[in-house]
Every structure is written in structure tokens, then in C-alpha cells.
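User: Before I run my own analysis I want an independent prediction to cross-check against. Here's the chain; please return only the C-alpha cells and, at the end, one sentence I can use as a sanity check.
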Amino acid sequence: MKTNKITFHIITLFPHALDSYLEESIVKRAIEDKKIEVRMYNPRDFTKDKHRRVDQKPYGGGPGMVLEAESILKAVSKAIGRKDRRQVKVIFFEPEGTQFDTGYAEKVAKRYDHVVMICGRYEGIDARVKKILRAEAVTIGPYTLTGGELPAMVMLDAIARRVPGVLGNYDSLEERRTASHDVYTRPEVLKWKEKNYRVPKVLLSGDHKKIEEWKQKR
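Assistant: C-alpha cells:
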């Protein structure tokens, strides 16, 4: 049965790279309020090698190194444990994967209690990991990054804000209300380098119907 809490399990070689974002603002408060939980799993902790090595040369040749399967699989197994797999979403980041967007975030937030995100590095992760785990390949955009940590934070933020209570006010979700891309606050007249920049008159009118019409047009 779906709960109102989501636990994010992040498989990464660099768990501290995410600390600064997790310890600030809304995400930090969501963690403190136990609306979400974030757990880190470093594949190096699941190796047999005394040097904690997790990368190997790619079969077939080519530049760089590839993250081996076994340590990643062990880390994910630790994350999943004996949880109901129907409540667990496993994500594998790839530039050619499913495009992550608002609809995807909404679906994950409504359906899953646990989200496992596997962050690749170097030339990638042994493809057998994705097959064994039946992980979904996902991308945040048509470009390549040096690792999966940034995509993981993007997804965590977008999904977490859809957990009830994280934003405090449900109407704070921009997707739930009529909102122009252009927003204004005080002062009414901003003077910058000898020019005056004014707030649109309709926003000062107090006429809510006209204001909503303006927002929709924008």
C-alpha cells in the first residue's frame, strides 16, 4: 500500500557530492520532517578487492573504464532488501533513456515508496546491471554529463515536491495553478540605470478575472 513518504536510494561513488543540496532549503526541511528520506550506497563498500576497485577495462576495446556489475548489484540489493518490489522504482541514467518531465515525476510520486537511482561514472555501467534489475533508463536531457549525481538531484527535487506536505501549500505546485512565466514583486517601479521598469497595470488592478486572463495569455 502506497504511503505518503518516499525514500530515495542513491547508488553513487561520490555520496558527499550531494551533501550541499540535501542540506539546504525545502529538501532539507522535507528530510527533517520525515516526508522523504535519502540513503546513499557507495559501490566501493560492496567490493572484495582490498583496494575497493569498482572499474574495469571495457570488452571490445575503447577508451576509459567501465563500472563493474557486481558491486552495483550488491549495493542495489542492499537498498531494496525485502521490500515489495511493486513499491520500488529502479532508475538507470542514460542519455537515450525516457525523457524525465513533470508527468514522470508525478507518476513516480503517486505510485512508489522507494526510488533507487544508479549514478554512473567514467564510460558507464556494465549493461547487464540494467537487464538484471529491470531498471528503466531515464534521461534529464539530450546531453552527456560526467556522472549521474546531478540527474539524481534533479529527479529527487522534482519528485519530492509532489509528496504531500513537502511544499506546505499544495497550491505552491506551479503545475496546479495558472501562472505566467513572468512574475513581479515590489517595488512597483524599478529604476535601473536611469530607466524605469514598471509592473504591468493589470496586476495592480485588483480585478482577479482580468489578472487570470492575463496569466493565461502569458
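Sanity check: The chain is about 30% helix and 20% strand.
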